[in-house]
Amino acid sequence: MQEASLQGSAEPQSAPQEPVSSSAAEDRELVARAQNGDTRAFDSLIRKYTPKLYGMVYNMTSNREDTADLLQEVFAKAYRSLGRFMGKSSFYTWIYSIAVNMTLNHLKKRGRHMKVSLDDVDTGIENDPDFIAVTTAKTGVAREVNIHELQKRLNAAMMKLSEDHRTVVTLYDIQGLQHAEISKILGVSEGTVRSRLFYAHRQLQAYLEDFVK
Amino acid sequence: MNDDFEDIQRLIRLKRHESPGEGFTEEFLKRFHQRQHEKELRQSALDRLLERTAAWFEDLMSPPRWALTGGAALVLAAGAWFYMSPAPENGGMAAKEAADPATKPPATNDTNRPSYDPKAMRANGQHGPDAQNAAPALHDGSQGSLER
Fold first, then answer.
1. Cβ B15–A133 below 8 Å, yes or no?
2. Which of A60, A211, B5, B94 is the most exposed place for a label (fewest CB within 10 A)?
3. Contact A173, A9 (CB under 8 A)
């Protein structure tokens, strides 16, 4: 199937986080200060990007210890390389690219020897409109869903995807990034992003068939 | 096509509720500072080690100060002894030798020396050393016999 014909994935209906690009000006200022030796400015960047990057790395690795260690290395590398950051791309694209590349390298090194270690699911999930919609789908009556079991199944399905497919699903569906942003981070065309999303969604639907019936 | 995946996208979005918990970011930042500090200490320890190694090699390659001082003192003492020692009455040994004709080396252009130039000998009717004029050979057993 041609990539150009794969336009099926619309932008996320409800972006989970504030669009990162909206704060690009603030980032530029923080980066400039950090480049001049202001470590507090770099701390602000860490505070701002840790939750976002944590979600990305965690959903790629399914291991919270690996995620925390990798994230330390990501910020250490960013700190070392900050002097060479010319601002041709936004800081968030730059730091996301570093995080994605380091995570993919880590997954290659780890190979099949992966150990799952999941974070707790917060209690807010039960009030999430997506959760309500999924559990009442088709019948209109809320089904009894074991949240812990759901988490395990979702995680297992994600880990069955190829690393490329898992990356786009993580960035698009979980992180709420736009196709254009993902294409810049991964250095591929938007068509490729859409194509990968299409195949990833199709696979996930097969793996989680019983949940979406 | 979008509607086909709407439910699966909703399901996957639920993963947003997995989080490391409150306080993670501040702990993470503290750990980042700690790691950076340890790294700087390691780096400065490495710098100090390199500095000391370089200084040790410098000491090893250069002669010690007492040797330099001693050498300089020896040179000064030798110079002073040479300067202070009394000069010979008739000049030095070299001057005496230069003045004495007996010590002159023999002349090398001696025309009385027999010439063995074959061309010159043939012109003078002489023969060079051949089988007849050669030194006594072992013609018979009486001369030059190894048995006495």
1. no
2. B94
3. no
Q: Which CATH architecture fits A22-111?
A: Orthogonal Bundle (1.10)
| pLDDT exceeds cutoff 90 at A100 | yes
Cα distance between residue B90 and residue A82, in whole Å? 87
- Domain residue extents for chain B: 27-79
Q: Which CATH architecture has domain A124-213?
A: Orthogonal Bundle (1.10)
8 Å CB contact of B5 and A205:
yes
Residue A117 has φ and ψ, to the nearest 5°, of -145, 105
Q: Which residues contact A124 (CB under 8 A, 6 or more apart)?
A: B17
| Angle B20-B21-B23 from CA coordinates, rounded to 5° | 110
CB neighbours of residue B61 within 10 Å? 7
Within an 8 Å CB–CB cutoff, is residue A174 touching chain B? yes
> What is the pLDDT, as a whole number, of residue B114?
53
Q: Does B40 touch chain A (CB under 8 A)?
A: no
pLDDT at B69: 85
Model confidence over A119-160: pLDDT tens digits? 877 777 878 888 888 777 666 666 677 888 888 999 999 999
B16 contacts chain A (CB < 8 A):
yes
Q: What is the DSSP string of A153-211?
A: HHHHHHHHS-HHHHHHHIIIIIT---HHHHHHHHTS-HHHHHHHHHHHHHHHHHHTHHH
Share of chain A above pLDDT 90, in %: 64
Domain ranges of chain A: 22-111, 124-213
- How distant is the Cα of A159 from the closest Cα of chain B, in angstroms? 12
Q: Tell me what pLDDT residue A125 has.
A: 80
Distance CA A79, CA A81 (A): 6
- Alpha carbons A42 and A97: distance in angstroms, whole number: 18
Residue of B nearest to A175 (CA): B16
